[in-house]
Specification:
- The chain has eleven helices and nine strands.
- With 307 residues, it is α/β, with parallel strands linked by helices.
- The protein folds into two domains: 136 residues, Aspartate/ornithine carbamoyltransferase (Rossmann fold); 148 residues, 3-Layer(aba) Sandwich (Rossmann fold).
- It has a five-stranded parallel sheet with strand order 7-6-5-8-9, sandwiched between helices.
- Helix 1 crosses helix 11, helix 2 crosses helix 11 and helix 5 packs across helix 6.
């Protein structure tokens, strides 16, 4: 197979195992290119991509912009602040106006779950979901899986733990289907108030005790508490959360195995993850950031039909 089964990348629940493997293989090639003195290739030089960010972002936006520049695409960067959205313009009108300028592909982050799916039903351009509400963040899921594959050789049979605010996490929303499709076992850990009901229906098990969960896993992906998505208080305090679910060196040293630590960022140091872990040899966090560019290059390249 040399093409994705989907026209868009809306979520990893929609892609096949073969799609994921093709993205990983394509990212391998682009990662080799990124190690060269000249990191730019002309693969998408006749493609125009609009980056529409209706929510604040640093790593994801910069990673997509860099991936596009490495592929020689023309890019338009849009942020909601200072735009006609503030005057009441709808999402569809905004996008249709941008597409009238002959844009081929949309990369969009939006606070509403399902926004990318809604657009895909109403416009013809390829859409890459860069995060929609509490639903999915598919390129983050892909780069997480790719980083684990790089470390361990394959995902099949690995024990993958996600710690923290599962209820509001679009990263968990993408990591869970990817890991399941690639043959890894997934467990979640966190306060019961931050675990979605019926999580087991996704093929995931729940372990409330952090030390027991860490003793089980090969890799732990630590998530931050997303206070900006909470309209009520789900934990008594950040201090109490850190006491029961914060990952620190003392805790890791009490476990008789080496666990790889991941985090999608931004890190709330001293809350869900201490600096002595985030900056340690066990951490894959900087590898995740580096791999994000290669993964996003692969996704854009494949969706543009260049495979």
């Amino acid at each position: 197979m040399s093409a994705l089964s989907q026209k868009h990348l809306l979520g990893l629940k929609y892609v096949t195992k073969q799609d994921i493997e093709l993205i990983f293989q394509t990212a391998d090639n682009f990662k080799d290119i990124l190690q060269r003195p000249i990191k730019k290739v002309p693969s998408l030089r006749d493609i125009t991509i609009a980056n529409l960010f209706f929510e604040d972002s640093t790593r994801t936006r910069i990673s997509f912009e860099l991936a596009e520049k490495r592929l020689s695409a023309d890019t338009i960067n849009f942020t909601a602040s200072g735009s006609s959205v503030k005057k009441g313009e709808t999402l569809l009108d905004t996008v249709r106006n941008i597409l009238a300028m002959k844009v081929d592909m949309i990369v969009m982050r939006h606070s509403s779950s399902g926004a990318a799916n809604f657009l895909s039903e109403n416009i013809s351009a390829n859409i890459v979901n860069a995060g929609d509400g509490t639903n999915e963040h598919p390129t983050q899921g892909l780069l997480d899986g790719y980083s684990v594959r790089e470390k361990f050789g394959e995902l099949k049979g690995l024990n993958y733990l996600i710690i923290g605010d599962i209820k509001h996490s679009r990263v968990a929303g993408s990591d869970i289907p990817l890991m399941a499709k690639m043959g890894a076992k997934v467990k979640v850990c966190g306060p019961p108030t931050l675990i979605p009901k019926h999580i087991e229906e996704l093929g995931v098990t729940y372990e409330p005790n952090l030390k027991k969960a860490l003793e089980w896993c090969d890799v732990a992906n630590v998530l931050r508490i997303q206070l900006e998505r909470m309209d009520i208080k789900f934990v008594p305090s950040l201090r109490e959360y850190s006491l029961f679910y914060g990952v620190n060196k003392v805790l890791l040293n009490s476990i008789n195995k080496d666990i790889s630590i991941m985090h999608p960022g931004p890190i709330n140091r001293g809350v869900e993850l201490n600096s002595d872990v985030a900056d340690s040899k066990q951490s894959l966090i900087l590898q995740q950031v580096e791999n994000g560019v290669a993964i996003r290059m692969a996704v854009l390249y494949l969706l543009a039909g260049r495979a």
